[in-house]
Amino acid sequence: MAHKWTDQDGRTYPLAVPAVTNEGTGGTVRAYLLNRAKPHLPPWLGWAGTGVAGALGHWHWGESAAAGVGLTLASVALTGATWLMGKSTSQQRRIHSAVTVAAGSAWLTAACLAGPTAGPVDDLYLMGGPVVALSWNVRMALRHNPEGAAGGSADGGLLEKVGLARAQIGAAKVEPNRVTAPLALEPGEQTNDDVTKALARIASALDLPKSAVRYSPDPDSERRGDLVIVPEDMLSEVVEWEGPSNLGGSIADPLNLGRYDDGADLLVWLPGDPDAGRNSTHLLIAGGTGSGKGDTALNVLTEILSRTDVVVWFSDPKAFQDFAPLRAGLDWGVEGGTPTEVMVAGVEAAIPARTRWLGAHGYRQWVPEAAQTQNDPAHSCRSDGRACGCAGMPFLVAWFEEAANTLRALGDDAFTGIAQEARSAGISLVVSLQRPSYDQMSTSTRASLPSVIALGCDPRDEGFSLPETVIDAGAHPGAWGNRRPGYCYVVSPGIDESRYPSPGRTRRFTIRAVPVMERLAAWAQHNGAVADPVTAGAVSGVAGRAYTGRTADDNAGQPVALRAVRSEEDEDMDHGGLLVDPEDIDIDPEAELPDPQEGDDAPIFGQETGHKPSPEEARRLFAAALAEFEADGHMIVGPKDFTDWCDRHSLSRSWVSLRLKEAAQEGRLDATNATGRWRIVPALTAA
């Protein structure tokens, strides 16, 4: 039968000895006693060896003064080394070891110089040696006595194994699949950084993945914190999305995106809450290819569209490849390129208009009451103190999917102004991209995105997504890469900071989710909020017909807030009359064509082709071109946009750049952040 014996350091070794039987043969009893005695023999062997060494040392160095000096120095050095090497052990064991070595080396020095039988040297050996050996036997007996285990270390020796032996661990709080234990480190010797560096060793000792062990330092102490251990990964099971969590609720309620590894809900808030002391936030969704970023974005967007007091402006350069079933529920959806440029300008124009409205109605930040009709005198814009009855202002989410495309086109600071100013206007900016590195996004923009959902990524990119303190606490999305889609860390206001290094997982969207998303979009179209007159007016002032707004009825093509204004213009229009363009009304169809003019003929070598209009004619044609672009919703233009137009009208392009500058001086165009790009000022606004 195989048995084990344990040495003084707690190491166990297998030992094959016969089992004790009722025969009681002499050989069997001797083997049993030897097996039981072996763990206690090392101190006695050390005592005997010291006596032999003392006798041999006296025979060799008994008359040498130099040997006396050497032995004394060796004794001091050995004792000091023992004290230093015991730093990683408990204080009691360190003192016991140092005293034992000091006593043994002192006796050995005396025996070598004076002789092992001189004076009290032999008495000290015969009485003190067994006492020291027995003290180690008693220590080991107490250490492995089950009855005394309750008085031992609360961590079962775990902290000693990982180099934190003198740390003290308090009573653990045990929850379903989560253990939280307060930790107090050795004053002046250990800091919270030591625990952070030991997390991998703790995970190894517990046979768990590194992500299952986290440490949350106490912000008021450098030597205290909570060690969190999650023994079972509850995220390994895929959970499919079946519908929004709070259909018909407010955007001020939390968005439920999935669950943490201990089973708790993964919640995110966008608007602020002055009562809870929570600020409004912008959201960054970052993750590498295959990390589940698309499903995570769908989780966020479906939660937003299920609320009744929010509108969404959405830009997707991938032509709504993942979001097509939800497009009907958006207030404004555009693809990449020029339409996205217009949306950025529209958000910039909406910020001061919304901020002005909120301030006039007594709101320091957006709250759900701001989305309702203003019937409260406390939130009236009237000077006489009576309720103003103004239409409410819904919360606005400006979402830029695959934002790296937009940043390349507009510059790395395209969102800087929005990110810094939009929160006070009741606007949340959502930016989704694979790698939020500083060569793609300006540091000012990144610093203004306080919330992040960090999915699997390259280990070198962890610092771009998560704060350094969260990484030090045990968060490592680089360990997942694209092997665990949907796994993420979430840092956002409203979430307990101890949750930041806890991994979560968002729900998966499959083909079965498409009909549910389409029904959600239809619900949002009929029950969701529409843009308020202030927001719709501000964005239409820069986007013109490019902004249509989500319609709740059959009047497609214009925002509900603007339909009342534009219907008055429609009443004044006579829809009868000639079916001819106004600019062609004076043309006689029977008249002869005009004679050819210079420049209308075949190209001359080294000279541009096409008719070169007079200055007056150029202004008229250019104005018509701008009107044509505006009618098509093409509100951002540059010289390259006139290529097809010039070819279509057989006109040269040499005067386009000059005319753009002149139109800007006249107020018909406005410069954008991009070089050589101009925003068309809608005709009514310019007038």
UniProtKB/TrEMBL annotation:
Residues 567-614 are annotated as: Disordered. Residues 264-464 form the FtsK domain. It comes from the Bacteria. Keywords: ATP-binding, Membrane, Nucleotide-binding, Transmembrane, Transmembrane helix. The chain crosses the membrane at residues 67-86, 98-118. Residues 581-601 have a biased composition (Acidic residues). PANTHER family: DNA TRANSLOCASE FTSK (PTHR22683:SF41), SPORULATION PROTEIN RELATED (PTHR22683). This is Sporulation protein SsgA.
